[in-house]
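Try it yourself: sequence plus adenosine-5'-triphosphate, in.
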Amino acid sequence: MGRVLAVANQKGGVGKTTTAINLASSIAAAELNTLLVDCDPQSNTTSGLGLVKDPERISTYHLLMRMAGAEQALQKTELGKLWLIPAHKNLIGANIELVDAERREFRLRDALAPLRERFRYIVLDCPPALDLLTLNSLVAADAVLIPMQAEYFALEGISELLDTIERIHAGLNPELTVEAVVLTMFDDRTNLAQQVTAELSRYFGDKLCKTMIPRNVRLAEAPSHGKPALIYDPRSRGAESYIQLAKEILQRSGVVQEIRAEERADEKQVVNAPRWKRWITEKNKLITINIQDR
Ligand code: ATP
Ligand code: MG
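Structure, out:
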């Protein structure tokens, strides 16, 4: 069964979409079937992967309104193992249209259920609000990844998010946990960033990811080329930090351990088989992603 990870924080512009795109791409680059679902009417994940706006295309809206099945909404991407369910700004309507609907918080969970065997990882990019769309994502998810910036007011609003997660855990989705908190747009040269990091580390303990995502212009440029950073510039610090984050998340969620157990169970399989590696060439540069080397 695939693991569903919601990338959520109701604060705007903290790096949810950048994290969703680049984490999902890095997992896919490790040869794991990965699905990215755009749950935000802003549709930044969709355009960030190079899809032009098209209200006719089957998207998250159609899944939530039960007008189409998830299988019909799948879009291929440049990475062979990465698939996308796109969004369109019409998704904003679902927030209102679903108010009185039956199983309104379970619509995304129900829609994705048939795909959970097919994908090892399903990453959900949430909008910057604790609305019905984020609620649907949290009900569909096994775990939440919270991107945050190391700034003075970083913790403001986080208790509201944690309360929401707690309420969903207690009622609608008892499986839901906080996978981790990841610091984005990090600049370790400032004293403030270091002080805030120390405070966040006290607050979140080992939920705070060891991997921190630096501020890196390549991460900001890549979406305008419709590419994840590891295709746009695989050697950039931004791309490398997300590959590192993918390794950490796969380790934290137990997926690396699961893969090792599967390899042991499958006698024909050579340990460290190349299927867990992927080489991406760009201008003769090579990067290797091996999820087992941690
Ligand atoms: P929203 O709440 O609107 O959905 P978000 O939380 O998804 O926003 P992003 O869109 O990922 O945030 O990032 C906000 C802006 O910061 C974007 O312009 C993005 O390109 C830029 N950005 C994100 N992460 C980085 C980074 N590590 N280095 C440089 N720029 C970044
Ligand atoms: Mg976003």
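One thing you can check immediately is this: The pocket of adenosine-5'-triphosphate (ligand 1) is lined by residues 12-18, 40, 42, 44, 128, 184-185, 213, 215-216, 219-220, 238 (CB under 6 Å).
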